[in-house]
Amino acid sequence: EWLLEFENYKTSPEFKLVNKHYEVGDFKQIFWWEYSHRALGRIIGLTFIIPLLYFYFGRKMDKRFTFKALIALGLIISQGLLGWIMVKSGLNKAQHVNHFLLASHLLLAISTLIYIVYLKQSLKYSDGMNEVSAKIKRVARITLFVIMLQMILGALVAGLKAGYVYSTFPKMGANW
């Protein structure tokens, strides 16, 4: 089965243009990274949907929270679909996945995580006892925005393989 999968991989632009020196052992390494990534996505989805169904059918959620939970489920499903589209973008003529799709996949993952943490916190502090000052909220939002922007730029650099141009970080070549 490994040889059959490896033969399929040999037809991809990534193999022909980048990894033509790969043997079956090399292919197994990238295969397991991809397989683990997809398995993790499925585990996350099941970890969310099974309790959601339990609480929904057990009538343990109010309508307002159910709506919010369905938004989270939609984000999780969208994450999987976007990942699939991203991978497909690298299996055609391109030798790598589309860098905009890669950055979007990461942004959606971060946004989904933030939304789920928000949902969790809204349950924990639903009585409003843990009010945070407007100044702290503003600083937290700005910090979060800057971190997300840096992560998206990092995804674009990675997707474009731009790190190979100047692999002398923190310098650019011989210059600061």
- Helix and strand composition category: mainly alpha
Q: Could you give the distance between the termini?
A: 50 Å
Radius of gyration: 21 Å
Mean pLDDT: 88
Order of helices and strands: HHHHHH
Description of the structure:
With 176 residues, the protein is an all-alpha fold. The chain contains six helices and no strands. It has helices spanning 2-9, 13-17, 24-57, 63-89, 99-124, 134-159. The longest helix has 34 residues, at 24-57. The protein is flat. The model has no long low-confidence stretch (mean pLDDT 88).
In short:
The protein has 176 residues and is mostly helical.
How do the helices and strands line up, and which of them pair or pack?
Blueprint: H1 2-9, H2 13-17, H3 24-57, H4 63-89, H5 99-124, H6 134-159
Question: Keywords, please?
Answer:
single chain, 176 residues, mainly alpha, 6 helices
